[in-house]
Amino acid sequence: MPEKVSCNLCGLNNYQLLHIRYFDDKIPITIVKCDNCGLIYTSPKLTKQEMEKLYKENYYYFRSNYTSTYENRDITKAQEIFNRIQKFKKKGSILDIGCGKGWLLRIAQENNWKTYGLEVSRYASNYARKKLGLNVLTGTIAEANFPSQYFDIITMLDVIEHLENPLNDLMKLNKILKKDGLLIIETPHIGSIYYKITRKYWVGFNIFHNYYFSLTTMKKILEKTGFKVIKAVTRPVNFFSTEGLWRLGIQDFILQTLDKFGKAKKIKESVKAVKSKVEISRSKFLLVVNRLNVLLNFPTNCLFAKFNMGDQLLIYAKREEAVEE
Questions:
Q1: So what CATH class is 61-238+309-319?
Q2: Across residues 64-93, what is the average pLDDT?
Q3: What is the DSSP pairing of strand 177-188 with strand 227-234?
C-alpha cells in the first residue's frame, strides 16, 4: 500500500478517520475527512497496479457480459441528460468523459452534434468506435490532448469520484471548455439521507471510488478550478421502492436471512410464477409500477430535494475564468 495522501482540494494532510470498509479479496479501504475543507476521500489509496487489476477483473464496463439491464438503464439516463443539454444549447460540440459504450454520444450525434468521447475501458471504447461509429479515445483526461476552448459541453457522469487527481483534471477541462461552455457532473452524494442512515454501509462507498463529494466540497473544487455552479440538484431518493430498500441494505439483509433458512430460492420461484401469470405486458406493468412509485414517494422526494439530500448529486457549472494547470 502507498503512503497516506494529502487532501486533493486544499493540499493539507490533517484528517479524521470516518470508516474502514472491506471489499473484494478482503481489501481494507480507509475513508477519511479533511479537517480543513471537509473533503472525504480514501487514504491511503490503492496503487496504480492494484487499481488496474481491479478494473480489468471486476468493473462491469470491462466485461463482455454487460447485461441488458445495465444497458437499458444507461440509454435511458443518456436520453435524460441529453434532454437537459438541449435546454442549454441546441447544437455544438460535446465531450463525454467516461462515456462507456457511448449512448449519450450516439443520441447527440443523431441530433447533429459534434461528438467526442474519452473512456479508460478498452472494451467499452472499442464498442463505441466499432459498433456505434463514434469518435472515442481510450485513456484518461491527463492523457488526452484536445484544443483549447473547443467544447460547448463537457459531461462527467459517475466519473469524478474515480479520478486520481480531480483538481488537476478539472483545471484541464477548464482549458478545453469554451468561455460560455457548460460542465455537467454527476456523482454519488455523501450528503444524502441514505449516507446519514447507513453510514459506513452506504452503497456509494466503492472500492473503485477515491472521492466522495458533498454539495459544499463540490462547489469548492469547482470554484478553485475556475468554474461557477449555476445549478445543483440531487436525484430523487424513491425511499419506498425496491431501489430504496437496496440502498438502505434492507433488501440484501432479507435475502441473506432467507438464504440461511433455504427460503430465498423458493420465494424467487414463487415471484417468477406470479409474474408469468400476469396477463398485462411487461412494459405496461413497469409503467404502472413507476407511476405508483412516483405517487408513493412524492412527499419524501419533495422533502429530500428541498434539503439537497438525494443520493446522486447533479451539477451544472459554467467556465468563469481561465486557470493555470
A1: alpha beta
A2: 80
A3: unpaired
